[in-house]
Amino acid sequence: MTVTTALYDVPGPQTRRRHRLYGVAATVVILAIIAWAVFLLIDTGQFSARKWTPFAYQGIQELLLEGLLNTLKAFAIAAVLSLVLGAVLAAGRLSDHAPVRWVSTLLVEFFRAMPVLVMIFFIYVALRAEPLYALVAGLTLYNGSVLAEVFRAGVHSVDRGQREAAYALGMRKTQVMTHVLVPQAVRAMLPTIISQLVVALKDTSLGFLITYEEFLHAGKLIASNLDYDLPFIPVVLIISPVYIGMCMVLSWCAYRVAKRQRKSLKTEAVDVNAPEPGTLLPGARQQR
Questions:
Q1: What values do phi and psi take at 248, rounded to 5?
Q2: Is residue 215 within 8 Å of 68, Cβ to Cβ?
Q3: Residue 281 binned pLDDT confidence (cut-offs 50, 70, 90)
Q4: Which residues contact 268 (CB under 8 A, 6 or more apart)?
Q5: Is the pTM of this model over 0.85?
Q6: I need a surface site. Which of 8, 37, 71, 88 has the fewest CB within 10 A?
Q7: Which residues, 6 or more positions from 162, have their beta carbon under 8 angstroms from its beta carbon?
């Protein structure tokens, strides 16, 4: 006998058997695809000792480590500058002054529509900037413009009554933004902010196109080595988990920050003293 709920019907015995069959079939298909891919890699000699020999040398390890540090360096600078630029452009878009709002909107829409690689190449070639500066500038302009829209949407997501109540208390607009709207909007914006920072982290790999010696550039140098039969697949198998791990660490940090905010004293419920009889207004009579 099936149990009916308000949201859905609990599956019966036949439906559960059918779902288990679907799960087993999907698992078999996925395992077959993985086995086929591994067979192709083995058949083409991608797991031969010769292709994996470079990673045993200290010089190759130092090259990869230096590239990883350069990637983190570019990402750290671009992330900070993107957050600052996004906050400035968002403040401009929320401004009460029309010229400031128009200029900010134009900058946001322009840099959002411009491909990141085009901006990086323009800054590197036309402005003759160093590879690190060109990469950071391109990432900052693009991600900062995207974050500006995230910040603006987050502020607008706060209930309108919060803004009206703050103005009713006599707060100025700056005080309303910094003390009322932004603290509440941060919790809603945090997942999107972290997602955009993950995009910035992955886009640092574009630096190898302008000869910036980041992680992917180091992998490219190893993969193009003829002495080891062009170990492209081994390089991918080494570099990809590192990028995935960095993105997972960034997401974990975001989760910890969000969890800490939920436990913050500013957001936790506080005990309120029981109401006590106060002084009566003139002319009022106390009720018994």
A1: -70, -40
A2: yes
A3: very low
A4: none
A5: no
A6: 8
A7: 180, 181, 184
Q: Please tell me which residue, 85 or 171, carries the higher pLDDT value.
A: 85
Burial of 218 (0-12, 13-18, 19+ CB in 10 A): buried
**Which letter, b or e, does each residue of 250-285 get, where b requires 16 or more Cβ atoms within 10 Å of its Cβ?**
beeebeeeeeeeeeeeeeeeeeeeeeeeeeeeeeee
Of 24, 139, 169, 148, the closest CA to residue 86 belongs to 148
pLDDT at residue 82 greater than cutoff 90: yes
Q: How many whole angstroms separate alpha carbon 241 and alpha carbon 76?
A: 20
Tokens of 247: 């993105």
The Cα 73–Cα 81 span in angstroms is 13
Residues 178-205, buried b or exposed e (16+ Cβ, 10 A)? eebbbebbbeebbebbbebbbebbebbb
Q: Is 134's pLDDT higher than 80?
A: yes
Is the four-CA dihedral 201, 205, 210, 213 of positive or negative sign?
A: positive
- 222-230 contacts: CB < 8 A, separation 24 or more? 222/54, 222/60, 222/63, 222/64, 225/54, 228/50, 228/51, 228/53, 228/54, 229/45, 229/48, 229/50, 229/51
Rounded (5°) CA angle 262-267-268: 90
